[in-house]
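Entry:
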Amino acid sequence: MYIKNLVPFLQSSAKFWELNGEDGAYPPQCPIDLPLSCRNHTTIDDTCCFEYPGGIFLQTQFWDYIPSRPGMDDEALEKQLGPLNSFTIHGLWPDNCGGGFDQFCDDSLAIDDVYYLLNSEQFNDENKKLEISGKELLKEMSRLWKSNTGDDESLWIHEYNKHGTCIKTIRPKCYSRWENEKMVVSSADYKKQSVYDYFRVAYNIYKRLNTTEILKEHGIVPSLTKSYTRQEIQSALNSGFNNQNVFFACDNHHALKEVWYYHLLQGSLLSEDFVPIGSLGNGNSKCPEKGIKFYPKGYVPSKNGKDGPKGPLYRGIIRLSGYEGFLIRNGHWMIKGTPANFKLIEAPFGGYYLMSRNGYCGLTKSSLLTCNKHIGNAGQFDYDPEKGYLGYSGSFEWGATVLPHGNVQSLVYLKDTAPKPYQFKLKFIKK
């Protein structure tokens, strides 16, 4: 359980971040004595003022250095990879207090546009005196929130649909009770406000965490010749994060590529009252103890700078640990017949798509595994290449309520707080 791991980090009630109170966007009317997320001892039902189950917030940053082609000038490099002296934004993710995370939580809130939304009059009216206008926010995102596919807006849409729709304290219903003269009162405007605030808060917390400067203060700078130890990088990052342990990851070239900062939250996301905590250890760092590179942007390592295969990775079947049988193409468990062929496909923004002849796989609201989805609502699965296990939202535990027999199929669920009588792992067996 995460809560047990949090105790050492929360002895002090002092807040690390100073709030931007003068120009705060729309401060919610919430009690000031609420506990930190994941620290409540009794149930708090007000989901507009208390974030649950996703009370652990990760602010994640990229160091993308490999260009799409060698020989690009600085202007072209910055357009593709962001500022040459700065990490870029990956996202703001709400992890669950008890482990794992939810994703794509509410299809009714999903978006397919950011450009026109932030350019709309709602976020560019000078009379509203917003903390940052939609156009200025869009400009900063275009500079600092970069996609490794070259399609920045697709990354923004993906991040909001996957993570932003899971943040309960910025649901449209919450804005409707916080009457504010700056806001246009309509359900459509509240939905847009949620999107704007997700990106605004993600941008704000990124600005407070200047990873490049933190590393530079300790002599860790981009270089073709220097290398660093894991301890050197760890100590530097921790010093810039209230001495809490920061998670960082490397690519297949042993080069620094990503940094994760963990926080708890007091009140609504709109309060931006984040409290740093130490890394909870999920994720594969892939960084060696020694010899970590921090390459300048624009450098192409050996092997053509490729960081692993793209597109369809594997074809195979899926079996269950400890039980006979296999998955069929709809995602159900059977013992009799022939196992379905599945594709495991690297997703553009992390994780993997799982696909059968029926379509892409994902989970329903009841955590049921099903394979009949289009790419737009496909789930993003986890994959452990060493053991072959498939997971979802950080969990590799699956279950079923009945055993299949004959031609009878059994439904497969991601394990949750209600344990299933039959529990197992799903193992992808490559062909």
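The chain is about 20% helix and 20% strand.
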